[in-house]
Design goal:
CATH class of one domain: Alpha Beta
CATH architecture of one domain: 2-Layer Sandwich
CATH superfamily of one domain: Protein of unknown function (DUF541), domain 2
Helix content: 25-40%
CATH topology of one domain: Alpha-Beta Plaits
Number of helices: 4
Distance between the termini: 12 Å
Order of helices and strands: EEHEEHEHEEHE
Number of strands: 8
Structural class: alpha+beta
Length: 221
């Protein structure tokens, strides 16, 4: 029977985000389903037209999700029983706009958002565009850590480390991103009189810390 040793290595890296994602959510209640759909389309066009003035293309503003839900309210009937009645249809439209990290462009985009009627909610994320490069570097660090641990263990045991027999590793699709700006901070921009003007948040996103593990079975000689 072949002798083996199984060692788990951990890889850690810090990467600087190079992209910005502006998340936008529109909601409004209308009396009919058709009116809700039309209102959503009209609000999206307003936002798209505004962003086009900054040099973005129409297709840069992408839909993440769209839904129209019936809205009800409770009321007391004449027989004293409680019932529900339809009061309208509420649409929720979630969108995103992604662009290379640029604080000046972000400030202009936020200024436009504060001036749009309907008060869409918005928040900011910083992320890394090339996830594959990050994954490969993280994996290399994890394998190196596993080998260093295996070498130390076999040396202490008086044996030699052989070839790799098996590698167990699973990379998920987790986003390499951070959200240093909370939505309530952006809403405060309206209250501070920044409506329509470029907004300087004076924020530098910190590096994103990432770690993962790989388990390797090594041959022992």
């Amino acid at each position: 029977m072949d002798r083996t040793i199984k060692v788990t290595g951990k890889g850690k890296i810090s990467v600087a985000p190079d992209m910005i994602r502006l998340l936008i959510t529109q909601t409004k209640t209308e009396k009919t389903y058709e009116a809700a759909v039309k209102a959503s389309a009209a609000q999206k066009k307003t936002i798209t037209d505004a962003f086009e003035k900054l040099g973005f293309k129409k297709e840069d503003l992408k839909t993440l999700s769209f839904a129209v839900d019936a809205q009800y309210e409770g009321y007391e009937a004449k027989d004293k029983s409680w019932k529900q009645r339809l009061v309208g249809y509420r649409f929720t439209h979630r969108m995103k706009l992604e662009f290379a990290k640029d604080s000046g462009l972000l400030g202009k985009a936020l200024g436009i958002m504060t001036a749009i009627k309907g008060e869409p909610e918005f928040s900011i994320q910083y992320f890394v565009e090339d996830k594959e490069a990050v994954k490969n570097k993280l994996l290399a660090n994890a394998v190196k850590d596993s080998k260093e641990k295996a070498t130390a263990l076999t040396k202490a045991a008086g044996v030699k480390l052989g070839e790799i027999v098996h590698i167990n590793y699973s990379w998920g699709e987790a986003e390499i991103a951070s959200a240093p700006v909370a939505p309530m901070m952006l809403r405060a921009c309206k209250a501070d009189g920044a409506v329509g003007n470029s907004i300087n948040l004076d924020i530098e996103a910190d590096d994103i810390d990432i770690e993962d593990t790989v388990t390797i079975i090594w041959e022992i000689k």
